[in-house]
Amino acid sequence: MQLSYNGLKETAGWEKAGIALPSYDPASVAEKTGKDPVWVHFGIGNIFRIFIGGIADTLLRSGEMDRGIICAETFDDEVVDRIYDPFDNLVMAVTLHGDGRTEQRVLGSLSEAVKAASEQGRERLREIFRSAGLQMVTFTITEKGYAMRGADGDYLPYVKKDLEQEPEKASGAMGIVTALLLERYRNGAYPIALVSMDNVSQNGRKLRESVLETAAAWHGKGFADEGFLRYLSDEERVSFPWTMIDKITPRPGDKVLEMLTELGVEHMEPVVTARHTYIAPFANAEGPQYLVIEDHFPNGRPPLEKAGVYMTDRETVNHSERMKVTVCLNPIHTALCSYACMFRYELFADSMHDPQLRELAETLGYQEGLPVVEDPGILSPRAFLDEVLNDRFPNPYLGDTSARIAVDISQMVGIRFGETIKAYVERDGTAEGLTAIPLAIAGWLRYLLAVDDEGQPFPLSPDPMIPELQRQLEGIRCGDPDSLKDQVRPILSNAHIFGSDLYQAGIGDKIEAMLRAMLEGRGAVRKTLVSFLG
Known about the structure:
Elements: H1 11-17, E1 19-20, H2 26-35, E2 39-42, H3 46-62, E3 69-73, H4 77-84, E4 91-96, E5 102-107, E6 110-115, H5 119-129, E7 136-139, H6 157-164, H7 173-186, E8 192-196, H8 203-221, H9 226-233, E9 238-239, E10 243-246, H10 254-263, E11 271-272, E12 278-279, E13 282-285, E14 290-294, E15 310-312, H11 314-328, H12 330-342, H13 348-351, H14 355-369, H15 381-392, H16 402-405, H17 413-416, H18 418-428, H19 436-447, H20 466-472, H21 489-492, H22 495-498, H23 508-518, H24 524-533
Parallel strand pairs: 1-5, 2-3, 2-7, 3-6, 4-13, 7-8, 8-9, 14-15
Antiparallel strand pairs: 4-5, 10-14, 11-12
Helix pairs in contact: 5-7, 7-8, 8-9, 11-15, 12-14, 12-19, 14-19, 14-24, 19-23, 19-24
């Protein structure tokens, strides 16, 4: 069995293997999509393919939608060359249940893949953005995709370059998207919705600010007129709905590859691109999934609610997102993964059976998070947290690794811990009563030394700030707590990282004390957790 339009015609083999096929014709859908697109998505990795692609597939199967998604990649062209084009943009979606069951389904909802940074791809996207019928542009480009500035407050080098040259030459995601919106403005100024689906606090606001900042810089250079700024600023013409998204999607697993191969599906091997993207013709993920979207689409939208999406108002989205990103899921992921790496738990699920890490997770969620989170109404925070800690995180079949979760922590700590810290400062005047969050931050700093709890070196997961952070931590040595002097003060006081000065918040000195204890020697990380968690 081969994952291609022609391969799907051999239905008997797929049926025998128990793999569900599209009830629609993906080729016909792709043709119609190309002529009259309604949906473009930027950031075409694993979570997009299985989750967002799965939503579109559900609507296509039910007849609620007759066109697929145009897939645009701004970061890694190899993904298009090696995963989309050879397989006619089809996706093998594998759901991994906690009881060991799997479900396999071929998705045909991704109709076209475009390299957004290439001249050919850019011209194709300009054509699409000129279309009056285009309703929405969605994004899963990770937190750093929206970033304009580094920790020092200065523009990132590629952003600075984009802001100073003609829009047509933009290379970053925000520059490319803003340039395409300029094309749309100049060719009808049609309405559209830009929908971030990333784990970024108030992601719609962040996306809007980055687009407007880019446009304002171009206006100042004479590359765009005042009308373009008015167009982007009018949310009745260009809206930026807020969202909350949740579905744990590990990198493609070896056991899933073995299973698909045994079923007779050919050429499913993962690839690692030159830009270190790990991706495969299949995507695997857990079963639970949540997508909450502010229902503000000035040019209309597909009936997303008929595929399980919660369509609601901005306030409810904000509460749902804060519940998940700052309390019930992401902070626990981030807090535990540093320790899991130092304790050599390759699979994150194994860390949930470690008594100290389990206690850290429960303290962080139930004791420190829930008291300051608002109930969104459509989802219960306590029930959500119960599912995370008791069913989702311990799922051994998910195959999610601690190293994957540790990717780009520096881009996340301000969102995942900073909001709760600020909530305590606002409520009590200080966050000094917190324990789990300071332990999480201290554990991350100790992790950055790249030495495990037995004193052995280990590789750190990719993070754009590692070189800068390690320079600031220079001189700190495991086994020598006196080597910690004032190296971490510039980090913990950096509002660009944490959203506030942690010393002013009342926990900077506590974090330093925890880190110093973790430097005592072999086993000191474990001893520190036991000491502070009681």
